[in-house]
Specification:
two-stranded parallel sheet
Length: 174
């Protein structure tokens, strides 16, 4: 057992992926730095299937139309957070955008699954602070059955329409 910085573990996972990456997170800030190794790996391996499940929030008392919030999130993500030319598939929970506060939910999970074989479950968001400065805790599990189970959980959420792909809303991927 070894204790390593979150950023080191995340970079290693992203840079060694061969077939697939599922990354689930609540907050993304300074994503260009956090996702650099993943974007580079996507360029090296054009067949790499990358799915990000991210929280798209509606702030307190915000009544902006949902389509506008999605557009703003997508524009900010592609212009400021994603460092590569090829975009991953990005999913969100539409309940996070409900106008009625009592019906809102957050996609608050934080995990990475690589090749359906390795899972990193962590308290860390996809932010520079969480990766480099905060005190976070995460567990790296090289247990294929568990990694597969986590992946299937998110596959099921996507298939059931609980999580929706941003591309399907209005923005095609490259």
């Amino acid at each position: 057992m070894a204790i390593r910085d979150t950023a080191v573990v995340v970079r290693e996972l992203f840079s060694t992926a061969r077939r697939s990456v599922l990354a689930v997170g609540y907050a993304v800030h300074q994503g260009r730095q956090v996702f650099r190794a993943l974007a580079e790996r996507m360029e090296q391996r054009p067949d790499l299937d990358v799915r990000l499940c991210l929280d798209v929030p509606r702030t307190w008392q915000d009544v902006t139309p949902t389509v506008l919030l999605l557009r703003r999130f997508t524009e900010r993500f592609t212009a400021q957070e994603w460092p590569g030319a090829r975009l991953p598939a990005v999913y969100y929970d539409p309940r996070s955008l409900a106008l009625e506060v009592g019906k809102r939910a957050s996609l608050h999970a934080k995990c990475i699954v690589v090749d359906r074989r390795v899972a990193f479950v962590s308290s860390a968001n996809f932010t520079e602070a969480a990766q480099e400065r905060n005190i976070e805790v995460g567990v790296l599990l090289r247990v294929p059955a568990l990694a597969e189970q986590i992946t299937r959980h998110f596959d099921t959420l996507i298939e059931a329409g609980v999580l929706r792909e941003l591309e399907n809303e209005f923005h095609p991927r490259s």
